[in-house]
């Protein structure tokens, strides 16, 4: 899921063999994966899953990476118990599967998670980062939730909203040059329109030679030619959060 109006022929890529450092919790009607940093913090990051769901080991790895960098990191199940996309599914059924999992229809769940972080975890600064489907959801939340301090949308873009360039908070957009799901003309249009309309800081960064999913669904240990780009993108997103959260 790269934009809200087009199918996403996503390859799951290099699925990690990773158990995680955090724990699963229940927040009202939502399950979530929560990882706490080693020291007390007032900063939190909401991590939004891709189409393969909140239990994908790669996404939990990214959630734990954020916690290791000092953030309360939480990855809720924004599908709310519905089955994630299975790599063995027939892609011709994707639009039907997506009907009740729209990344722009998550406000209720986001409000529940924000309330939990503020009231139960005592955090005062909250950012959001999302991958693929979650990148679209991140773009959506940054447009509609001013209390978020920053956003990082990783290969995700809202394409059809009239107000999609009016970001409330500083946002980093990360794309791969060879992403078959998000054409470069969409990315260059995003950058141009943000330059014309956006009143907050933003950055649209394209990584040479990279494909959809490279930041969290490529393993740097088995893709040595891609390792510098994977590491650079992860450093970029951490630096963005450090700057604004």
From TrEMBL:
Domain of life, source organism: Eukaryota
Molecular function per GO: hydrolase activity
Dienelactone hydrolase domain mapped to chain residues: 30-244
Entry keyword annotation includes Cytoplasm: yes
Record's keyword annotation contains Ribonucleoprotein: no
Localization per record: Cytoplasm, Cytosol
Record's GO cellular component terms: cytosol
One Pfam family per UniProt: DLH
Keywords: Cytoplasm, Hydrolase
Family statement drawn from the similarity comment of this UniProt entry: Belongs to the dienelactone hydrolase family.
Name this polypeptide is given: Carboxymethylenebutenolidase homolog
């Amino acid at each position: 899921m790269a934009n809200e109006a087009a199918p996403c022929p996503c390859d799951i890529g290099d699925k990690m063999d990773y158990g995680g450092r955090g724990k699963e919790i229940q927040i009202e009607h939502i399950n979530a994966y929560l990882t706490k940093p080693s020291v007390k913090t007032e900063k939190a990051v909401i991590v939004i899953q891709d189409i393969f769901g909140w239990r994908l080991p790669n996404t939990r790895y990214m959630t734990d990476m954020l916690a290791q960098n000092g953030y309360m990191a939480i990855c809720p199940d924004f599908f709310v118990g519905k089955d994630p996309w299975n790599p063995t599914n027939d892609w011709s059924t994707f639009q039907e599967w997506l009907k009740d999992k729209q990344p722009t229809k998550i406000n209720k769940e986001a409000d529940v998670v924000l309330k939990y972080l503020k009231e139960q975890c005592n955090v005062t600064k909250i950012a959001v980062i999302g991958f693929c489907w979650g990148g679209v959801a991140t773009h959506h939340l940054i447009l509609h939730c001013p209390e978020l301090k920053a956003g990082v949308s990783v290969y995700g873009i809202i394409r059809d909203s009239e107000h999609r360039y009016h970001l409330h908070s500083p946002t980093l957009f990360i794309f791969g040059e060879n992403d078959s799901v998000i054409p470069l003309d969409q990315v260059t249009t995003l950058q141009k329109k943000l330059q014309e309309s956006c009143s907050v800081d933003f950055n649209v960064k394209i990584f040479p030679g990279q494909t959809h999913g490279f930041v969290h669904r490529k393993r740097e240990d088995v893709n040595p030619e891609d390792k510098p780009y994977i590491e650079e993108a992860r450093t970029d997103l951490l630096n963005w959060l450090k700057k604004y959260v």
